[in-house]
Amino acid sequence: MAIITYLLPALAFASTAIAQCSNAATMTITQSADASALASCTTYSGSVAIPTGLATPQDSNGHQQLIVDGVQAITGNLTVTNAIMLSSLTFGDLKTIGGFELGGLTVLSELSFPQLTQVSSMNFTALPALQQMSFGGSGISQADSILITNTGLSSLQGINNLQSVSTFNVNNNAALQNISLQVVSIKNSLDIEANDGYVSGLSTTFPMLETAQNMTFRNCSSISLPSLANVTEDLGFYGNTITSFAAPNLTTVGGLIFVDNTDLTNISIPGLVSVNGSYQIANNTMLKQINGFQKLSVIKGALDFNGNFTEVDLPALTQVQGAFNVQSSGQLDCTAFNADKNSKQVIKGNYVCSGSLSTPGGAGTKVSASSTSKPTGKSAAGHNDVNVQAVMGGASLIAGLLQLIL
Ligand SMILES: *[C@@H]1O[C@H](CO)[C@@H](O)[C@H](O)[C@H]1NC(C)=O
Ligand SMILES: *[C@@H]1O[C@H](CO)[C@@H](O)[C@H](O)[C@H]1NC(C)=O
Ligand SMILES: *[C@@H]1O[C@H](CO)[C@@H](O)[C@H](O)[C@H]1NC(C)=O
Ligand SMILES: *[C@@H]1O[C@H](CO)[C@@H](O)[C@H](O)[C@H]1NC(C)=O
Ligand SMILES: *[C@@H]1O[C@H](CO)[C@@H](O)[C@H](O)[C@H]1NC(C)=O
Ligand SMILES: *[C@@H]1O[C@H](CO)[C@@H](O)[C@H](O)[C@H]1NC(C)=O
Ligand SMILES: *[C@@H]1O[C@H](CO)[C@@H](O)[C@H](O)[C@H]1NC(C)=O
Ligand SMILES: *[C@@H]1O[C@H](CO)[C@@H](O)[C@H](O)[C@H]1NC(C)=O
Ligand SMILES: *[C@@H]1O[C@H](CO)[C@@H](O)[C@H](O)[C@H]1NC(C)=O
Ligand SMILES: *[C@@H]1O[C@H](CO)[C@@H](O)[C@H](O)[C@H]1NC(C)=O
Ligand SMILES: *[C@@H]1O[C@H](CO)[C@@H](O)[C@H](O)[C@H]1NC(C)=O
């Protein structure tokens, strides 16, 4: 008891002295004096929030600026949300932050963190006036997760030199012109979507990227992955305006998906050996030839292609574990696949290969009637049961047949 009474004043003193630069509760900056207090700390151990209701001087437009120099590290989060009149935010000496969250800053047009190189996560949401970021020298090199959505950014200069990242999600940034990242690996997922306001589209390039867990590209005008070697889960392309896609170094992928890429005419993945999930190609209206897979041998899931192609060439195929569905409105030669099916070694699941269809569908759909009266391709009679049935319009028969095949 006596000891505690004796210590109390000392503890109280220590805690007030440390409180300026360390706090379990979030430090809130609402006026210039708060910013000055933070500026006196080299390292601030805790989180800092700049919320709505900032009471700093306003210019003739009612806009506010905030400059915090001195502080070099914030161990917790820096969260700036809904400070709707904040037009300029500067942390002149800040090198590292935990989470960096900017949200709902309607007029923020200047973001200056000239020393910043490291954040654990970045969440930039609803920053319509922000056209560029200014970070340290070569920019942020380390981050676990990046989310940039609904901003006015025209480029991602400032994070282009990221070396590795776990989660990278950039969506709905209408002015974005290009994404060029130096990352070598995407440990978790990459999602790029709906950044489609710029007149020539969003071009993306990942010159160093070798491995990724999961990647999804939507609405991009070009996609360059020259070093990509392995993707453990899915690699998906949806609604892009790319005219061709090449991944010269890709050898293995979990799932591979090309859907709704309406300008795509050429896919070239010459070194791809195995797809450890399903391989889908659907609704790429300009894609006439699927012949850029000279080494593809093993598909552990389904192969599911539908479209308007006249050639599907998979010369190295040795194994398709799931369903096999190739349906085209174009004239198609199914001879090689019929042989693969008949040998019972290569194609093990439900089998459909059919051309000249009025409405080519995905795996599990009924095979539509032929759009022409001629049998398709040069398929040898008697080796093409499903195809012949389709031409005769035996849709329900086919459905029954499909169930029996597996
Ligand atoms: C920082 O923000 C993240 C995400 O919002 C949260 O999970 C984490 O607990 C925050 N950290 C601190 C120290 O407040
Ligand atoms: C990002 O920030 C926005 C608003 O500031 C918030 O609603 C959202 O939950 C955050 N997302 C993540 C993944 O932290
Ligand atoms: C891509 O963005 C950079 C800025 O990061 C810019 O300098 C460059 O001109 C842009 N390239 C294209 C093709 O738009
Ligand atoms: C492609 O892979 C080869 C062999 O692993 C390697 O030498 C080459 O540098 C890679 N190319 C690119 C562009 O990464
Ligand atoms: C990609 O996978 C192949 C085959 O599993 C392996 O030999 C190669 O080392 C992997 N490459 C990278 C960059 O992980
Ligand atoms: C393929 O997928 C299975 C599970 O679906 C997983 O156990 C295996 O490691 C994967 N192989 C490769 C090479 O990614
Ligand atoms: C992985 O990628 C696929 C296809 O691109 C996508 O549908 C799925 O949502 C992604 N999963 C995660 C966890 O990002
Ligand atoms: C973006 O891609 C999606 C498919 O993921 C598609 O539905 C949508 O129409 C595309 N948007 C534009 C503007 O092309
Ligand atoms: C498809 O793209 C590959 C790789 O870029 C190229 O070598 C090939 O000539 C192209 N094929 C056609 C028909 O354009
Ligand atoms: C392809 O387009 C058809 C017709 O619009 C649609 O029913 C089908 O769901 C699409 N397939 C995929 C995989 O999106
Ligand atoms: C398929 O391509 C031909 C031209 O090669 C075109 O006449 C036809 O409309 C296309 N069909 C579909 C469904 O896109």
From TrEMBL:
Coiled coil: none annotated. Residues 367-376 have a biased composition (Polar residues). GO terms for biological process: fungal-type cell wall organization. Its main location: secreted. Residues 1-19 form the signal peptide. SUPFAM superfamilies: L domain-like. It comes from the Eukaryota. The keyword Magnesium does not apply. It holds the Pfam family Ecm33. Keywords: Cell wall, Glycoprotein, Secreted, Signal. Residues 359-382 are annotated as: Disordered. One of its GO terms (cellular component) is cell surface. It is found in: Secreted, Cell wall. This is Uncharacterized protein. The lineage of its organism: Eukaryota, Fungi, Dikarya, Ascomycota, Pezizomycotina.
